[in-house]
Amino acid sequence: MENQEPDIVIAGYARLFGNLLEENLLHELRQIGDSPENQWAAIFIYDRKDDGTRTKWTLFTADYRYAEMLAMEAGRIELDVEIIRERFPAFQRGWVINEAAE
């Protein structure tokens, strides 16, 4: 049997502390959900296209514990695309999570 690579590979994650973020970014994060502990998370993934190439994405969630669990289990659990879309409602192409210095 051929060993096929998974469609989604988690490369890492970041915990985003609300008290350390600029107000405009905090406003955007609050749009994806309230975080009782004022903490959100981002996971950094590779998404495999039909032609086998990979695209980098950053996915955001208000449930930092879920993001942390996924990152810790990376490579050991099968990731369901629909669940990922539900649990990480905001995303951006690439892995940049802040603006370049002006």
Label the structural class. Answer: alpha+beta
Low-confidence stretches: none
The biggest sheet, with number of strands, parallel, antiparallel or mixed sense and barrel status, is: 4 strands, antiparallel
Proportion of beta-strand residues: 25-35%
What's the overall geometry? globular
Work out the number of β strands. 4
Terminal residue distance = 52 Å
Please trace the helix and strand order, writing H or E for each element: EHEEHHE
| Sheet with the most strands: spatial strand order | 1-2-3-4
Q: If you average the pLDDT, what whole number results?
A: 87
Helix percent reads 25-40%
Number of helices: 3
Radius of gyration: 14 Å
Descriptive tags:
single chain, 102 residues, alpha+beta, four-stranded antiparallel beta sheet, 3 helices, 4 strands, globular
Give structural notes.
There is one protein chain. The chain has 102 residues and is of the alpha+beta class. 25% of the residues lie in helices and 31% in strands. It has a four-stranded antiparallel sheet, covered by helices on one side. It starts with 7 loop residues before the first strand and ends in a 9-residue tail after the last strand.
Topology readout:
Blueprint: E1 8-17, H1 23-32, E2 39-48, E3 54-61, H2 64-72, H3 81-87, E4 90-93
Concise synopsis of the structure shown:
With 102 residues, the protein is α+β, with helices and mostly antiparallel strands.
